[in-house]
Amino acid sequence: MPKRINLLVVALILTAGWALAELSGSYLVPIDHDAIRYSKTQADDPIHRLGQRIARGEVKLDFEDNGMGHLRSLLKNLNVNLDSQVFVFSKTSFQAPRISPRLPRALYFNDEVSVGWVRGGDVLELAALDPKQGVIFYTLDIEDVAKPRFDRRDACLQCHQSGGTLGVPGIVVRSVYPEPSGMPVFQAGTFITDHRSPLKERWGGWYVSGKHGSQYHLGNALIRDRDHPDQLEKEGTQNLTSLAGKFDTGAYLAPHSDIVSLLVLEHQTHMTNLITRVGWEARMALHYQSGINKAFNQPDSMMSESTNRRIDSAVEEMVQYMLFVDEDPIVEPISGISTYQKTFPQRGPRDKKGRSLRDFDLKKRVFKYPLTYMVYTEAFDSMPDVARERIYKRLHDVLTGKEKGAKYASLSDADRRAILEILLDTKPNLPSYWKTGSAAD
Questions:
Q1: DSSP state at residue 330
Q2: Environment class of residue 216 by beta-carbon count within 10 Å: exposed (0-12), middle (13-18) or buried (19+)?
Q3: Smallest Cα–Cα separation from 370: which of 361, 378, 382?
Q4: 421 found inside a domain
Q5: Which domain range does residue 336 map to?
């Protein structure tokens, strides 16, 4: 009897913990939980893989003796386009002393990797999406060596694991009110922004080049009145097609901080964190469930109501974001000034009608077909089966019209049909019921 009581107490404690997780949503996930082992597991991301190829002599990174080091060659080998470049001038990096409005940090990214470069800095900053472990952080010394080495930096989690990253190792776009030095005035507030954020809260501490009509953002602006830090300068900060008057743009690989690239980066950061968080939640839930099943001599396949609820809650949040539910509408057309608006859509698959989830709208919303292109990533495909299968089930319910809830009312019948057709043509390994048209179990 005492043993049975103890086991029951364990089960109740675990159930209570799951309920807390559902309610909080942003608690810090223990990175070295037995189901996760973030810092104890060998990375398998694009940066680590490139490092292995360099070590074997299969790849050589070219070095430029202009302060950029291996930057240009690194971007080429990681398949990161130069036109993805954006500038952030707030002191929100571990290289903060070297960053200012006159010396912004340049960021470059694709679906799985981001690279940061600071003029006069000692290292390149890198973040890569591991298919199972989430975002892994690295630095690369700016020095001319035969075989440059990427150093993993779990210390970055001091800033890159928080409520803003959904409690997992992740990345964010943070909007601040910056002083002329670039130092954020934190008492004025900050914003973690994504596609749901009002434009008026976005890009404080960032440079923004492009056209957006009368819509107002916080980019390109500094605090001029310390007594009113939330009142940024407005003159000369909106609809900029050149940043030449702000700093020496010629000292960088490109002169722009494209508004369309920023829109994509914002969407992608939160989507990346969701993929990691949902995957980790599922792994921990299954781990706890396995322990309970063994303790109570239950079948391995047994799934408690608490376990199902924990996974379903995480999945529903992710599906809503994938489908751009609650996206902040664009009220006037937006256009960038670089080639990014053209090259980004070219990087993904197209269906038989030539449509892609990477096609832009930029008149009323960011993308023409509102389902995230991150569905094609290795990280999405590597999620635990139980989570990925439930995501597919919810997506199918929404896209076929079975789900008619008000939360998805923003999706027109035409949107749902187009997304369904695009996925059927371009996404391998869809569940069989997607292809047959039959209902999911």
A1: P
A2: middle
A3: 361
A4: yes
A5: 279-436
Closest CA to 151 of 43, 65, 76, 254: 43
Distance CA(127)–CA(109), nearest Å, equals 9
Cα(414)–Cα(189) distance, integer angstroms: 40
pLDDT-derived band at 11 (thresholds 50, 70, 90) equals very low
**Interatomic CA distance for residues 8 and 199, integer angstroms:** 50
CA distance 272 to 374: 8
Domain count, the chain: 1
Q: Is the pTM of the predicted complex or chain greater than 0.90?
A: yes
Ramachandran angles phi, psi of 6, nearest 5°? -60, -40
Biggest distance spanned by C-alpha atoms of the chain: 78
Q: Are 382 and 282 in contact (CB under 8 A)?
A: no
Q: What is the pLDDT of residue 315?
A: 96
CA 134 to CA 375: how far, in whole Å? 15
Residue 228 falls within a domain, yes or no?
no
For residue 204 the two structure tokens come to: 């404080």
The DSSP call for residue 119 is T
Q: Average pLDDT in the 159-167 region?
A: 94
Distance between CA atoms of residues 269 and 263, nearest Å: 10
Domain membership of residue 112 (yes or no) is no
- Confirm if 258 and 85 have CB atoms less than 8 A apart: yes
408 inside domain: yes
